[in-house]
């Protein structure tokens, strides 16, 4: 039985192929004009639907990531900075550390590009199909403290807990009280060996205890964050014993 284009479009929509349904008249005209074979026509339909779905998926991942700005690492000026070498940046962009659930800690004073690098790597991850979430430490604390009574906070924290990569910017910029320290620990504990975390901070992990207050919680947080981690210093800094004995992403000759 012959069907009209409108009927076929309705059937495509019933099959949840809405993008193809909208494009079907154009695809039919192209097929007729170019004398496509049946196989070529089917290939064109499936490729169009898959491309549209991937574009929508990318758009959703970008929206959920909540980046404060979008800049590629291609634009990052490596000259004049001492955070990363060209080789190290290239290695990080391969994202093998993310696949292995390593964490990154970017340390150093303001203005050296810590947040830029973190967002740039987050973008690379989004483009590769990973779910990413960016939050400043202040934003994260507000979400954690309001989760019990704000649905918006519940939704955002669910996305954080399900993310492949969580970026926490400006970590330890201010002291935590006991409740905040506990909430932060439980989040880190949940993400441990489920997700990778990128942290930026102008204070080294050895100083975090002074801001968290509770030494037990500090040790528990550090144990989870530093189990598999690369600590990248933006500036000369003597490493502690704990830092020197961590597992590293970069080989010794890098």
UniProtKB/TrEMBL annotation:
Please state every residue range assigned to the domain named AAA+ ATPase.
Answer: 100-233
Q: What is the superkingdom listed in this entry's lineage?
A: Bacteria
The keyword Magnesium is annotated on this UniProt entry: no
What's in the keyword line of the UniProt record? ATP-binding, Nucleotide-binding
One GO MF term attached to the UniProt entry: ATP binding
Under the heading SUPFAM superfamilies, the entry gives: P-loop containing nucleoside triphosphate hydrolases
> Which GO biological process annotations does it have?
DNA replication
Any Pfam family: IstB_IS21
Per the record, the similarity remark reads:
Belongs to the IS21/IS1162 putative ATP-binding protein family.
Protein name per the record = ATP-binding protein
């Amino acid at each position: 039985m012959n069907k009209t284009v409108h009927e076929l479009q309705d059937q495509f929509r019933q099959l949840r192929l809405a993008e193809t349904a909208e494009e079907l008249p154009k695809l039919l005209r192209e097929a007729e004009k170019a004398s496509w074979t049946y196989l070529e026509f089917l290939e064109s339909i499936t490729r169009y639907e898959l491309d549209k779905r991937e574009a929508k998926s990318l758009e959703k991942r970008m929206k959920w990531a909540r980046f404060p700005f979008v800049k590629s690492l291609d634009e990052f000026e490596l000259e004049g900075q001492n955070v990363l070498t060209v080789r190290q940046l290239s290695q990080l962009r391969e994202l093998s550390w993310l696949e292995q659930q390593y964490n990154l800690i970017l340390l150093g004073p303001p203005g050296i590009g810590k947040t830029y690098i973190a967002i740039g790597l987050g973008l690379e991850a989004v483009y590769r199909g990973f779910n990413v979430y960016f939050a400043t430490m202040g934003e994260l604390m507000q979400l954690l403290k309001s989760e019990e009574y704000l649905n918006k906070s519940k939704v955002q924290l669910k996305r954080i807990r399900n993310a492949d990569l969580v970026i926490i910017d400006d970590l330890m910029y201010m002291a935590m009280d006991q409740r905040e320290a506990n909430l932060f620990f439980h989040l880190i504990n949940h993400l441990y060996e489920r997700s990778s975390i990128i942290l930026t901070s102008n204070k080294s992990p050895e100083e975090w205890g002074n801001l968290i207050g509770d030494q037990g919680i500090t040790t528990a947080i550090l144990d989870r964050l530093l189990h598999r981690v690369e600590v990248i210093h933006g500036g000369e800094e003597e490493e502690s014993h704990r830092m020197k004995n961590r597992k590293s992403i970069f080989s010794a000759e890098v």
